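Table S4 entry, Cytochrome c oxidase subunit 7C, mitochondrial.
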Amino acid sequence: MLTPLARISNKLGRNVMVNAVRSHSHGGVPGENLPFGIHNRYKLTAYFILFFGSGLAAPYLITRHQLLKK
């Protein structure tokens, strides 16, 4: 009794995901699936510096904060 319901649910979920993937894809466009634009190289460079710089600077800033606490 539970098996037919599970089978229908699984098929419905799979169809929804396949349609979602197919409808949003333009097929082979570089950078299409990225959450940021790659067309402005200076803006992209600034984003990369901020993203990786914040991760590399965090331990030093946290240590400094801890050492300056009273």
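The chain has a mean pLDDT of 83.
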